[in-house]
Amino acid sequence: MAVNPYWVSVIQNEEETFLTDQFPLRLIEVRSPLGNTKDNSTSFVGQDGEIVYPPTYEAFSLEMDFRFKTVDNYDYHLLVGELKSLLCQEAPYFVRHEKLPARKYAVDRCEIDLTRKSANLADLTLTFHCFKGVSESLYTSTTAFTYDEEAWGVGLNIPEGEDIQYVFEGEAIFNVYNPSDMRINPRFHPLSIALTCDSVAGENVRIYNRTNGTLFELKKQIVKADVLLLDGVYPYLNDARCGIDTNHGLITLERGWNRVQIINATNTTIAFDFPFYYR
What domain of life is recorded for the organism (predicted)? Predict the structure, then answer.
């Protein structure tokens, strides 16, 4: 946990480094665009108006202003080099900040701008390129909901006073809540659904989202000891690909509540694991 109350951190290889503790940085301001929508509309000669497609969002810049004050001129140059080494990486990493502590931003590069004020003092701006065009929750849905400020704090669209669950035992019909600003589509977003159950004799197990009509069907009998995993677009039965034995369907989750049903199964346990995404 950060010592500095106005903190910024980076997460690289699952290790979190608090910039505002490791370097003599005082956070002044955080800026991100209010909208970064792509224009997906199309018009044709001889046709009125436009054809409108669902919106998509551009990558954006997350800018952070700091006051950078070192002990002396030599310390200044040494720490600038260490900061560059930490932030200018080949592999993407995540950035977090104190203003929205329960979110993180996937970045693939960082620009460092220094305006020297004196031998040991500068105004510093870090500009992170958020290539996904969205931020995401710090943890995924199967993390216990403790409502502490770093796990499930404010700014995640989680309804207060609601019973939010992502693991269901012995329930044929239940509600799954997606607090994201968008539909969760396993073609584009991480979504894992794990199911154990006993098939009803002679019937195919189905997972059906009644809210949007998406349906997955396994055309094979299973018992409780088997594990069916829908990992993104790929289904697995006991760690082996089983797409040939399915209807090739995908379950998507709409924004807000989704009414999900397990059909032709008893003794069920199902878990939905996914991060939440925000514009």
Answer: Bacteria
pTM assigned to the model: 0.88
Enumerate the domain spans of the chain.
8-133, 155-278
The yes/no answer on whether domain 155-278 falls in CATH 1.10.8 is no
pLDDT, tens digit (0-9, with 9 covering 90-100), for 260-271: 999 999 999 999
Higher pLDDT, 42 or 106: 106
Print burial letters for 172-194: b (CB count within 10 Å at least 16), e (below 16).
eebbbbbbbebbbebeebebbbb
For 8-133, give the CATH class: mainly beta
- What span, in angstroms and rounded, lies between the C-alpha atoms of 131 and 146? 30
pLDDT above 70: percentage of residues in the chain: 91
